[in-house]
Amino acid sequence: MKRLFSIVLAVVLAICFAFPIFAEAEKAIQLPAPQMDGGMPLMKALKLRCTTREYSGEALPPQELSNLLWAACGINRPDSEKRTAPTAMNKQEIDVYVALPEGLYLYDAKAHVLNLILAQDLREATGKQPFVKDAPVNLVFVANYTRMGEGPKEVQDFYAAMDTGYISQNVYLFCASAGLASVARGWVDKEALAKVMMLGVDKKIMLAQTVGYPKKK
Ligand SMILES: Cc1cc2nc3c(=O)[nH]c(=O)nc-3n(C[C@H](O)[C@H](O)[C@H](O)COP(=O)(O)O)c2cc1C
In the predicted model, is pLDDT for residue 137 greater than 60? Predict the structure, then answer.
């Protein structure tokens, strides 16, 4: 019996090494260059923009993920490194974390790369609604108060919220244009999420936003 168990274990391990069942999180995902000349007319995207709460589990191809993040707050003027979304005094204080099934990543707009933060599926922790755990992408917008520098807390909170809103609307409009579904989400256990994301005290979770393909009716 012991021998049989050892043989079965050896076979299972051999198969696992040959065909990895559990995809390992890549340390960095180099996104393909964003396609900046596509999409639908802006007025049509505005007409279609809406909140959707039912998703198919289908993953976004790398090109779609690239386009999404660039639209959200990528660099659109390389000379000045300014972004598709404005920020008060150009502080660029909102970081976009991306919760994928294989791990939590942080978007680096300059390199257009996703850097691995945690090789763990944190999608469920990004919100209190049932669809978040199965949707392929959950964005988490985090304000970095150190980057905002000195100033009254009240003003910083206001700017961080405003700057998050612009990014979120960019995501909504991109999704409308690309046939994707999205929902901005404030209903998040921010304390618990900040803990699992291991955020420092100068970082504040502002909003989450789910993106995926709409569930087929
Ligand atoms: C700041 C903000 C927070 C939101 N939080 C949630 C949320 O936690 N859960 C949710 O299902 N929808 C959330 N929504 C989506 C709104 O409910 C939705 O935008 C509203 O019902 C109007 O629908 P529409 O986006 O289709 O126009 C949020 C929207 C915003 C702008």
Answer: yes
Q: Pick the closest to residue 185 from 212, 204, 207 (CA basis).
A: 207
Domain assignment present for residue 130? The answer is yes
The finding on whether 187 has its CB within 6 A of some atom of ligand 1 is: yes
Ligand 1, residues 51, 140, 175: which to mutate, most atoms within 8 A of Cβ? 51
Pairing status of strand 203-212 against strand 181-185:
antiparallel
Ligand 1 atom 17 nearest Cα: 51
Whether the CB-CB separation of 137 and 97 falls below 8 Å is answered with no
How many domains are there within the chain? 1
User: 155 is in which domain, residue-wise?
Assistant: 24-212
Which residue's CA is minimally distant from atom 23 of ligand 1?
A: 51
Give the pLDDT of residue 21. 42
Task: Say whether pLDDT at 10 is over 60.
Answer: no
* 69 in any annotated domain: yes
Q: What is the pTM of this model?
A: 0.91
CATH at 83: 3.40.109.10
CA atoms within 13 A on the CB side of 177: 22
For the chain, give the mean pLDDT.
92
pLDDT at residue 24 in the model: 72
* Residue 187 Cα to ligand 1 middle (Å): 9
Residue 119 clears pLDDT 90, i.e. is over it? yes
